[in-house]
Amino acid sequence: xxxxxxxxxxxxxxxxxxxxxxxxxxxxxxxxxxxxxxxxxxxxxxxxxxxxxxxxxxxxxxxxxxxxxxxxxxxxxxxxxxxxxxxxxxxxxxxxxxxxxxxxxxxxxxxxxxxxxxxxxxxxxxxxxxxxxxxxxxxxxxxxxxxxxxxxxxxxxxxxxxxxxxxxxxxxxxxxxxxxxxxxxxxxxxxxxxxxxxxxxxxxxxxxxxxxxxxxxxxxxxxxxxxxxxxxxxxxxxxxxxxxxxxxxxxxxxxxxxxxxxxxxxxxxxxxxxxxxxxxxxxxxxxxxxxxxxxxxxxxxxxxxxxxxxxxxxx
Length: 315
Prior knowledge:
Elements: H1 8-15, E1 21-25, H2 32-40, E2 44-50, H3 54-63, E3 71-74, H4 81-84, E4 93-99, H5 104-108, H6 135-141, H7 144-155, H8 160-171, H9 179-189, H10 201-212, H11 214-228, E5 229-239, H12 242-253, E6 276-278, H13 288-293, E7 301-307
Parallel strand pairs: 1-2, 1-4, 2-3, 4-5
Antiparallel strand pairs: 5-7, 6-7
Helix pairs in contact: 1-2, 7-8, 7-10, 8-9, 11-12
């Protein structure tokens, strides 16, 4: 099965009617969402695809070459607005899309360390050339307490301390150098009922989030979207676990202009003004048909909000 973009029809629907302008695909991946936008939204001036993974940028550029200047790919994080904003075509930004997490292609590519069965790598960085520590560096150098806290905070792994302790014992004997070795080690520690997910799933998620600073990038990326979207433009975020979705939900809740003054004050003093209007009051979920065709979509949640300018603000 080839790469299938998650909730693609939802994305296109929410971008219809936003007017003529640019759409930022902050996690362009293999270019599936960007391709659908370019094909189905002729009013869009074009799509700018951003990605930290240089392989993804190259793949999207090849796939979307037929659209000519309507598609531009930039190898960088959507959070680093100062890097990519000067390189945008001169048009209003009307859409900002984030499809978070790991792509099926990254998971299936040997030598990246994302798969539990990868015998060659324990990297897990979206950008292998990054100066940030890889997962191999993390599991072989971080203190036991930091490992346990990471597993619990980012993976909600209840056996976090036992797993961290086992990693410390193992690395004292030999360096942990592959995803397969780490997954086998975690599997021996985590005992329990048979589950549909691999025993190492939560720890792998936690380590990937830590190595790529994903939650930090998400918070900065949401601020970037607020900064660059024009009134009427839409922010769309597809998340795959509760940590991401909570950040998006809290960001939007803090941008809808709701008064934050203590209830005992007789008048409002916070002067909060709305920056977004929430379009999806509750997160949209994939259909059973999409989940059947694309199992990766099963945990997806989509939230959409529209940029607004409150009275008294400078557009």
